[in-house]
């Protein structure tokens, strides 16, 4: 029987008593979806998954993305991205610097993402302590705590998000081997606009949907004013009181909601401290359609 234990922090819950390599019942799928809406981040310990299992579980929640810029995909399963700093015969096994700064996945895309599903296979450790944790911030609470005058000023406004902003930031990181995006890759992911405040498709509650990784301009606003407000929003949403940190253990599955959280992968391990994680990105088509049908 599935058991959900809240972390007691701003975000997070642990879900036990379920084997994700087995078919997921409709009841369990709905319980997991509601837990994501409520807690933002859920972990499933002690899983034993093949790439096909990870893909099958993830696909119950929406269409899976195939990343246009990622060459590190599971053979035969392009929906499964490999995140790793391991090098075999001089060739990287996976994308080593993915997500190392605060962002919301797919906010740069017209078709937004609902959830990430990551499976930890090899976790770096030092003196027995796990490295490479994943951090999150609570965007529901960040919205609630905004000054009322700013809520009023930004209500109904949109911001432009650009894939290349984050990509170039990652290229500037020490040791990054990312090449620039090709013109073809940029054409597939042009800048897009999204509401700064959004109703969460599961809970209906307002969230702050504007992250440091991709958001670069409040539409229709003078750039100086836009820069000032975005700087305030980015500082506000990263306060310690909104944060939650997942410390990885081998065979964890970690799933999070991209509407109600932003996240950051902490790169506190060396190339000799190996990390191997496999990941699926669940698009928001299913949850958005369900929210529209319920409205």
UniProtKB/TrEMBL annotation:
Top-level taxonomic group: Bacteria
TauD/TfdA-like domain residues: 4-280
Region (Disordered): 172-195
SUPFAM superfamilies in alphabetical order: Clavaminate synthase-like
One Gene Ontology biological process: sulfur compound metabolic process
Gene3D superfamilies to which the protein is assigned, alphabetical: Clavaminate synthase-like (3.60.130.10)
Single GO term (MF): metal ion binding
A GO cellular-component term linked to this record: cytoplasm
Stored Pfam families: TauD
Keywords tagged on the record: Dioxygenase, Iron, Metal-binding, Oxidoreductase
Alphabetized PANTHER family for the sequence: ALPHA-KETOGLUTARATE-DEPENDENT SULFONATE DIOXYGENASE (PTHR30468)
Protein family according to the UniProt entry: Belongs to the TfdA dioxygenase family.
Record protein name field: TauD/TfdA family dioxygenase
């Amino acid at each position: 029987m599935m058991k959900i234990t809240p972390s007691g922090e701003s975000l997070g819950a642990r879900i036990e008593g379920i084997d994700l390599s087995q078919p997921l019942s409709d009841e369990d799928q709905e319980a997991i979806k509601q837990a994501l809406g409520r807690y933002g981040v859920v972990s499933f310990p002690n899983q034993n998954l093949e790439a096909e299992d990870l893909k099958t579980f993830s696909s119950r929640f929406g269409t899976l993305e195939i990343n246009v810029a990622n060459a590190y995909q599971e053979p035969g399963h392009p929906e499964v991205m490999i995140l790793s700093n391991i090098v075999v015969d001089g060739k990287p096994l996976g994308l080593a610097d993915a997500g190392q700064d605060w962002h919301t996945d797919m906010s740069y895309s017209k078709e937004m993402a609902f959830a990430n599903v990551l499976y930890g296979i090899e976790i770096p450790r030092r003196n027995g302590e796990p490295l490479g944790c994943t951090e999150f911030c609570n965007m529901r609470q960040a919205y609630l705590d905004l000054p009322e005058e700013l809520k009023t000023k930004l209500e109904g406004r949109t911001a432009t998000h650009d894939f290349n902003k984050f990509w170039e930031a990652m290229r500037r990181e020490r040791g990054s081997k990312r090449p620039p995006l090709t013109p073809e890759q940029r054409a597939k992911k042009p800048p897009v606009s999204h509401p700064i405040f959004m109703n969460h498709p599961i809970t209906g509650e307002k969230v702050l949907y504007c992250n440091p990784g991709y958001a670069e301009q409040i539409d229709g606003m003078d750039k100086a004013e836009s820069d000032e407000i975005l700087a305030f929003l980015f500082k506000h949403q990263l306060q310690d009181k909104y944060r939650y940190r997942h410390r990885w253990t081998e065979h964890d599955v970690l799933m999070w909601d991209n509407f109600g959280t932003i996240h950051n992968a902490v790169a506190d391990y060396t190339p000799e401290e190996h990390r191997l994680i496999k990941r699926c990105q669940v698009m928001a088509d299913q949850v958005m359609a369900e929210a529209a049908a319920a409205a």
